[in-house]
Design a protein that fits this description.
The complex is a heterodimer of chains A (284) and B (266). With 284 residues, chain A is of the alpha/beta class. Chain A has a single domain, classed as HUPs (Rossmann fold). Chain A contains 12 helices and 6 strands. Chain B is 42% helix and 15% strand. With 266 residues, chain B is α/β, with parallel strands linked by helices. Chain B is built from 12 helices and 6 strands. Classes of the chains: A alpha/beta (284), B alpha/beta (266). At the A-B interface, helix 1 and helix 9 of A face helix 1 of B. Chain A: Belongs to the eukaryotic NMN adenylyltransferase family.
Chain lengths: 284, 266
């Protein structure tokens, strides 16, 4: 057994989940900021960035087809040598909890052998937890779980903005046990603007506070408010989005005429998938 | 049908280096002016300041021009002009405006001559290049809201220059949500008099990429990807432009404050 090098850095994969509707320079910036931050601690080495667009089953208002969103993200990361797009989440027919996506990528990291892909698709289930119906499911194969103490085990951390972190507080959006497992087993890298309220939010939550060493807060000094919502709004109004999204993304949007008042009305009145799911779960 | 006035946007600044935000200002301004129905924005000009400006951390104009060129390669209407940076000394803003305005007239005149020689028969009166109906282009200064404020700084501007800028040319002033440039205008009699020629554009998508912060990040080996174009990042790396040393450039030799203030941090 190899001796553990105390100076060895932990390898990290940054995973960003979201609508990416469309992807913007701000999304891409998050990766750069997170990587710089983690490297500066001297304890981590960021080996990969993964963009995982949410599936259409998320039912968010204005969410256009995953095909387009994945394509745009791929175009946007074409000349990045470390950030890539993964469409596993978006190709599932049902909405998946973020934790499941984290687990999937974590397992994939531990066993990169492609023949293990079926195993990678199956989340570890906790005893006693109700499993929701999942299509194309095979019998679960128990994977040997590596001890989290070993430093050489790479980690998959969830990369997000302060809005996602603070969305932990929205009733029925997240399961408490999911949040716990995310911060306990994986970790968060949260990018926010100077003067934000994230620290206060963490302070006010026992779960987050307990795992605050695994929640990395990165301050972004360059105010960068390029939200996808604003991009879509600008497009509806015939305004330019150049220099807010990569040129190739802007060209793709224009060519395919992606965003309109009609597309913004998609899923209007439909309950967001996690809200629906957690409401029905609690009924059972 | 009212024909639109051709309009040229001119932005002066250090562009040290050029950032996505600089280019964004042009896009915002164009959208706004086209929306008024009165203008047809035909060109955007970026005019990097002369090295003689002596601002702290200002790298050679040769590089700043080269970077701007790379950044604007994919723009079909914005270009960088080296005239200001090629002058022997620093040039007042109003003179830069005058130069580019005269250039645009010259160009228009030579186009008209060309057309006249090519097609001696009278052209349609709707053609803006028609020598029958020549709609003179307008040239407006594109700037941030902080620029308006600088008019108040004592001894920074000559009163007659401010007047010429707002009367003869005009301003297109981009500000972010939360700031109120209309207030500065109301506080100045001169600006109020020509407020019809000061276009206020609000940027709702906050994107404050200051070139100063870009330089700091570069000196510290931090990423600036997606804040400035990839081609500019490569150029900076290739020529090793922004370093701790370059930041100290002009530190001792700054000119008296009245010239270094008004361009702002860009």
């Amino acid at each position: 057994m190899a001796m553990e090098d105390p100076d060895k850095k932990t390898e990290v994969v940054l995973l960003a989940c979201g609508s990416f509707n469309p992807i913007t320079n701000m999304h891409l910036r998050l990766f750069e900021l997170a990587k710089d931050y983690l490297h500066e601690t001297g304890k981590y080495k960021v080996i990969k960035g993964i963009i995982s667009p949410v599936g259409d089953a998320y039912k968010k208002k204005g969410l256009i087809s995953a095909n387009h969103r994945v394509t745009m993200a791929k175009l946007a990361t074409k000349n990045s040598d470390w950030v890539e797009v993964d469409d596993w989440e978006s190709s599932q027919s049902e909405w998946l909890e973020t934790l499941k996506v984290l687990r999937y990528h974590h397992q994939k990291l531990l066993s990169p052998d492609p023949t293990n892909s079926l195993q990678n698709a199956i989340p570890l289930t906790k005893p006693g937890r109700k499993r929701k119906q999942e299509p194309n499911r095979h019998d679960p194969v128990k994977k040997k779980n590596q001890s989290p103490d070993i430093k050489s085990v790479p980690q998959v951390k969830l990369l997000c903005g302060s809005d996602m972190l603070e969305s932990f507080g929205i009733p029925n959006l997240w399961k408490l046990e999911d949040i716990t497992e995310i911060v306990e087993n994986h970790g968060l890298v949260c990018i926010s603007r100077a003067g934000n309220s994230v620290q206060k939010f963490i302070y006010e939550s026992d779960i987050l506070w307990r795992h605050k060493n695994n929640i990395h807060l990165v301050e972004e000094w360059i105010t960068n408010d390029i939200s996808s919502t604003k991009i879509r709004r600008a497009l509806r109004r015939g305004q330019s989005i150049r220099y807010l999204v990569p040129d190739v993304v802007q060209a793709y949007i224009e060519k395919n005429n992606l965003y309109s008042p009609e597309s913004e009305d998609r899923n209007a009145g439909v309950v967001l998938a996690p809200l629906q799911k957690h409401a029905s779960d609690s009924k059972n | 049908m009212v024909s639109r006035t051709p309009l040229i946007l001119l932005a002066c600044g250090s562009f040290n280096p050029i950032t996505n935000m600089h280019m964004r200002l042009f896009e915002l301004a164009r959208d706004h002016l086209q929306k008024t129905g009165r203008y047809q924005v035909i060109e955007g000009i970026m005019s990097p300041v002369n090295d003689d400006y002596r601002k702290k951390g200002l790298v050679s104009a040769r590089h700043r021009i080269a970077m701007a060129k790379l950044a604007l390669e994919t723009s079909d209407w914005i270009r960088v002009d080296p005239w200001e940076s090629e002058q022997e000394t620093w040039t007042e803003t109003v003179k830069v405006l005058r130069h580019h305005y005269n250039e645009s007239l010259r160009l228009l005149q030579s186009k008209k001559e060309f057309m006249k020689n090519k097609w001696p028969i009278e052209r349609s009166t709707e053609d803006p290049l028609s020598y029958e109906h020549s709609v003179l282009p307008e040239l407006k200064l594109l700037c941030g809201a902080d620029f308006l404020q600088t008019f108040k700084t004592p001894n920074l501007w000559k009163e007659e220059h401010i007047k010429e800028i707002v009367e003869k040319f005009g301003l297109v002033c981009i500000s972010r949500a939360g700031s109120d440039p209309a207030q500065y205008i109301s506080e100045s009699d001169l600006l109020t008099q020509f407020q019809h020629n000061i276009f206020l554009v609000k940027e709702w998508i906050q994107n404050e990429i200051s070139a100063t912060q870009i330089r700091y990040a570069l000196c510290r080996g931090l990423s600036v990807k997606y804040l400035i174009p990839d081609s500019v990042i490569s150029y900076i790396a290739r020529h090793n432009i922004y370093t701790e040393e370059s930041e100290r450039e002009n530190e001792v030799w700054t000119r008296d404050g009245n010239k270094s203030l008004f361009r702002g941090s860009t």
